[in-house]
Amino acid sequence: MNLNKNIYLGLGSNIEEKIANIKSANNKIASIENTVIEKYSSFYETEPREFAEQENFINAVVKIKSSLKPEELFIKLKNIENELGRIPTFKYGPRIIDIDILLFGDEIIETQILSIPHKKIVFRKFVLIPLAEIDSNLIIPGIEKNILQVLEICSDSGYVKKLEEVII
Question: What are the two backbone dihedrals, phi and then psi, of residue 12, each rounded to the nearest 5 degrees?
Fold first, then answer.
């Protein structure tokens, strides 16, 4: 089992028991074959982006290693969302759980179902701040800047408040 890729996942919830939803997703991620969780960020309360007329989110980032290919991992993560009761509504709408692949090693992937690094990573402080907590020197492929450098130029003015609780 080759676990040499550092993979970063963004998790978010704004329906029902938000923290419990993220913890449940994390437990399911930990049970994916050939996958190991390396590190967790704190939880962050954040304002919704794109569609503002909904509850605030709780967001977190998890660093994993996996021998799965990006497409295989993506399918596993979508299955976890479904198992936890995610019902597709509309783009940027409320959701019980959202799991995004933010970074997959130093890979740059652009397919119909996958965009890695995540297309909006540089525009979202609710992703950059927990990423910086895990590894502030992490370089974003294709941009060749580390997380702190990207945070300095990020124009996102949304509310991001660190909570005391962590995922574990």
Answer: -150, 150
